[in-house]
Amino acid sequence: xxxxxxxxxxxxxxxxxxxxxxxxxxxxxxxxxxxxxxxxxxxxxxxxxxxxxxxxxxxxxxxxxxxxxxxxxxxxxxxxxxxxxxxxxxxxxxxxxxxxxxxxxxxxxxxxxxxxxxxxxxxxxxxxxxxxxxxxxxxxxxxxxxxxxxxxxxxxxxxxxxxxxxxxxxxxxxxxxxxxxxxxxxxxxxx
Amino acid sequence: xxxxxxxxxxxxxxxxxxxxxxxxxxxxxxxxxxxxxxxxxxxxxxxxxxxxxxxxxxxxxxxxxxxxxxxxxxxxxxxxxxxxxxxxxxxxxxxxxxxxxxxxxxxxxxxxxxxxxxxxxxxxxxxxxxxxxxxxxxxxxxxxxxxxxxxxxxxxxxxxxxxxxxxxxxxxxxxxxxxxxxxxxxxxxxxxxxxxxxxxxxxxxxxxxxxxxxxxxxxxxxxxxxxxxxxxxxxxxxxxxxxxxxxxxxxxxxxxxxxxxxxxxxxxxxxxxxxxxxxxxxxxxxxxxxxxxxxxxxxxxxxxxxxxxxxxxxxxxxxxxxxxxxxxxxxxxxxxxxxxxxxxxxxxxxxxxxxxxxxxxxxxxxxxxxxxxxxxxxxxxxxxxxxxxxx
Lengths: 191, 391
Description:
The structure holds 2 protein chains of 2 kinds.
Chain A: E1 4-12, H1 17-30, E2 34-39, E3 49-57, E4 72-75, H2 80-83, E5 95-99, H3 104-107, E6 117-121, H4 123-131, H5 137-148, H6 153-167, H7 173-188
Parallel strand pairs in A: 1-4, 4-5, 5-6
Antiparallel strand pairs in A: 1-3, 2-3
Helix pairs in contact in A: 1-5, 4-5, 4-7, 5-7, 6-7
Chain B: E1 3-7, H1 9-20, E2 24-27, H2 35-45, E3 52-55, H3 59-72, E4 76-80, H4 82-97, E5 103-108, H5 122-126, E6 133-136, H6 140-157, E7 161-166, E8 174-179, H7 182-189, H8 213-245, E9 252-255, E10 262-266, H9 270-283, E11 288-293, E12 295-297, H10 301-308, E13 313-318, H11 329-340, E14 347-351, H12 361-377, E15 384-386
Parallel strand pairs in B: 2-3, 2-4, 4-5, 5-7, 6-7, 10-11, 10-13, 13-14, 14-15
Antiparallel strand pairs in B: 1-8, 6-12, 9-11
Helix pairs in contact in B: 1-2, 1-6, 3-4, 6-8, 9-12, 10-11
């Protein structure tokens, strides 16, 4: 891993992109890293485009601004590609991970000439099948961990299991589905 | 051993409050400080603290609650932001002039209008003459640490204290933090030293009495002296805190100032962004530095004058405008300190980051580019400037 990895999340209000960015910060923190996890706040409402950020580093990062040249971008809602400049500033040696049933090469022409790695994962399908609802943020979190390598995969799985056990102590039946969603996403992400 | 955690700035403040376990909290919610009373109310509900939580109908009443409780002999706290702080203003003056060491957490936010929920310092700066000690934090860690020191500082001079951090930028960002064990916190904060207070048996007293012209000015002079004395109180408590935690703080922090030729003076979270800009510029051979102001009031006049001596040019950064037609509050106070010390300087003022306008590493680099031009040519030009604004 580089000394600092910067990740930008694009989602729509209510999809859990903010929560996913904070969960990623948590997972990185639990493996000994310095983290910053923060959403961009404004007049948000359900369905409106939102942005969230993660900085994960080996030394404390003192910068308190948004991220303009991310190493990775996560797009939780495919429809945002038309309306939001999702690849703005994205490093060519980095990657963009998009929630889509399409293949990466079908998406690439829509990305305004982005030359770097394009990955897709059908997070809606995975969450519907494993959780019974469209909660794309859990599979998207696993996909970005896999693609970016900011957290070692097995450590991540172990850490998430621990936090789900804590979070869903009163409804343990949810834990298994979430764990399956994470693992499937890591296997099924393309590109 | 410190406890390694990751918390947002608001969570960190609420946690500090829990560790201290004060007597009374009077609070009314407002973005972005709402989470502080929200988390704290959970601690109250869970029985983790035995604080009397008084949910009131306005910030004016929240501060009134604190005034009543503190005058009675309790330790009282509140939290607010933006218009909430404005609405408290009348009572902020009462708290200070009644010499009540109340602790108020402020997650700083712009004032309307246009309506805006994001960060700048116009709320805190708007009440700067109310007579409160005002400490500002760059990070969640500093907000937490300042809060742990707040009561000791305030109670040693009998003035109320505001612990300010940047709304959203630090209040809502999760970052690593080292927490102090609760037993150590309680030992450090101790009990409020009480001399005169309303609930003291066998001592009748009045708080907030009328003062005729024969007495009013003496009361104000005593209040002014307390603020002068607050500088030493901050230093003394900060030294003790440093001995406990290894984290030493002063009235200002000098960053890369030893051989600096140009520098910025700033407050709050953007100072961290400036540190990164300074590292980048120094790697290219530029002798640049930062003076971060931790204590805005009492103002570190002599400390800043000493720190800027020898600089070829510097910029004072205000995340707020006084709308006086020529400068922001930090610049005004800095220039007053320079004149009093008989020091002349090439100093410009930037109004920046209003209403959450993002302050980037490149924003700070622009300021240094301007400063190096001034240093080279000797021409200061317009001193009252806006950073990165469309005109």
